[in-house]
Write a structure and sequence with these properties.
By secondary structure, this protein is an all-alpha fold. It has one domain. Helices cover about 75% and strands about 0% of the residues. The protein has 6 helices and no strands. The longest helix is centred in the first third of the chain and has 32 residues, at about 5-35. The chain is elongated and about 70 Å long.
Length: about 160
């Protein structure tokens, strides 16, 4: 099943909107406050998998700040998404099994719902890719142009021999 150009454009714009919305929300609401208040938060942040709480917080900040920025830009999107997916998976795990919260609970009660929603959106973006309105697409196009121009040069030089 092929998409028309109008459908492709709407898909690309939806992917851009999702990248900006969820990457921006992750950066603004979660990553930046952790980065700005590292010393205060690291005292209360859980230590997991044999890592110290400050190491776990540093890894969360890496994903929630730097990978969120990469996602917004659409640069190394799948790498950024892999880090965000791991971070949100850990967030769901911590909420469900360490804090003993529900996946979905009554309004106002802490739950794993938000981490789960982020996780699902990031998985969907991983499957679909960043779209054509991304730096990944620009780089890919430049590489394809370079490759085709070098093949043309090879073909013309081999024909002259």
């Amino acid at each position: 099943m092929t998409q028309s150009n109008e459908q492709k454009l709407s898909t690309d714009m939806a992917l851009l909107l999702a990248r900006i919305t969820f990457g921006g929300a992750m950066l603004w609401a979660h990553g930046w406050p952790k980065l700005a208040n590292f010393s205060t938060i690291s005292e209360k942040f859980p230590s997991l998998f044999g890592l110290s709480s400050s190491t776990c917080l540093g890894l969360a900040i890496f994903a929630e700040v730097f990978c969120a920025i990469l996602l917004i830009l659409g640069l190394t999107s799948r790498f950024a998404l892999s880090q965000l997916i791991v971070t949100m998976s850990v967030g769901v795990y911590v909420n469900l099994f360490i804090f003993q919260r529900q996946l979905f609970d009554s309004p106002g009660k802490p739950s794993a719902e938000l981490a789960f929603i982020y996780l699902m959106v990031f998985v969907i973006l991983m499957i679909l890719g960043p779209g054509r309105v991304s730096l990944d697409a620009v780089i890919s196009e430049k590489r394809a142009q370079k490759k085709s121009s070098s093949k043309k040069k090879e073909n013309t030089s081999s024909k002259k021999k």
